[in-house]
Design goal:
This protein is of the alpha/beta class. The termini are far apart. 43% of the residues are buried. Helix 2 runs antiparallel to helix 7 (159-178) and helix 3 (35-50) crosses helix 4 (64-72). The chain is 46% helix and 22% strand. It has one domain: Rossmann fold, CATH 3.40.50.150. The radius of gyration is 16 Å and the shape is globular. Strand 1 (54-58), helix 4 and strand 2 form a beta-alpha-beta unit. The longest helix is centred in the last third of the chain and has 20 residues, at 159-178.
C-alpha cells in the first residue's frame, strides 16, 4: 500500500509518531492483547542478568522499556533517546529524567559510553538499519551488548491468520484507538520488510557484532536479538 510513509522520510515519520503519541501505549497494549508487557519483561530480565551500569534505550518513544529497565535495575543509569520530542513528553511522565531528542543514525554520545543499548520496535522505522546498528556499536563499550526487540512473523499455520490480522484488522482497530489508520498500515508494512531470524543475525554480524542470538517469543510474533561488541 502506497502512503506518505513509504520512503521513511524522517520528518514524515516524526509527525506520524507525534500524532499517535497520546494513545500509542494504549494501542500497543490492546493490539498485542497485553503481550507487550511480557516481551519487555523478557528483555528487562535479560539485561538485568548482565549487571550493566549504563544503558541507552534507543528509540525509547514513551519510555515503556526504559521504565521497565529502571524498575528492574534501579542502580543503573538509563538514558532514553528518541527523534520524536512529543513522545518523550510521555516518557517524562514515567519519571524518566535522562531523555534526549536524538537521531539514531547520528547519536550525540561519545564512543564507548554505554554497557547496553536496547532498541524495542524502533529499528524498523530508521532509514538505514546498518547505519543505526553501527551507531549503536560505536556508543557501546568493548564487551557491551545490543538488544533488539521487534516483530517477526510466526511459523505456519499461524502465519496466514497473523498476516490477515496485521494488514486488515490491526489498522482498523488502531485507527479507531488513535485516529491514524494510515500510520498502522505503514507499521504493518515495516514488519513484513524487517530482517528476521537468520537475516537479522547476518546483518548484526556484518556490522561487527559477535555472539549473535535470536530468541522468538509468543510463537514467533516477536524476536529478541542480541549481539556483543568486540
Amino acid at each position: 500500500m502506497e502512503s506518505e510513509f513509504t520512503q521513511k522520510e524522517p520528518n514524515t515519520i516524526q509527525r506520524m509518531f507525534a500524532r499517535i503519541a497520546p494513545r500509542y501505549d494504549l494501542a500497543n497494549s490492546l493490539l498485542s492483547f497485553g503481550c507487550d508487557s511480557l516481551w519487555r519483561a523478557n528483555v528487562g530480565a535479560r539485561v538485568k542478568s548482565w549487571g550493566p551500569a549504563a544503558i541507552l534505550d534507543l528509540a525509547t518513544g514513551s519510555g515503556v522499556l526504559a521504565f521497565e529497565l529502571k524498575r528492574r535495575i534501579p542502580g543503573a543509569r538509563i538514558v532514553g533517546a528518541d527523534f520524536c520530542a512529543p513522545m518523550l513528553t510521555f516518557a517524562r511522565r514515567r519519571g524518566l529524567r535522562e531523555l534526549v531528542v536524538a537521531d539514531g543514525l547520528a547519536l550525540p554520545f561519545q564512543d564507548g559510553r554505554f554497557d547496553v543499548v536496547t532498541i524495542a520496535f524502533g529499528l524498523r522505522n530508521m532509514a538505514s538499519y546498518e547505519a543505526a546498528l553501527n551507531e549503536a556499536k560505536r556508543v557501546l563499550r568493548v564487551g557491551g551488548r545490543l538488544v533488539i526487540l521487534d516483530f517477526s512473523l510466526p511459523n505456519p499455520p499461524l502465519r496466514v491468520p497473523y498476516r490477515i490480522y496485521l494488514h486488515r484488522v490491526l489498522p482498523v482497530l488502531a485507527g479507531w484507538v488513535t485516529g491514524e489508520p494510515d500510520a498502522y498500515h505503514y507499521l504493518a508494512g515495516t514488519i513484513e520488510d524487517f530482517p528476521k531470524g537468520d537475516a537479522m543475525l547476518e546483518l548484526l554480524s556484518r556490522c561487527g557484532f559477535v555472539s549473535c542470538d535470536a530468541r522468538p517469543l509468543t510463537m514467533g510474533v516477536v524476536t529478541v536479538y542480541t549481539g556483543q561488541k568486540v
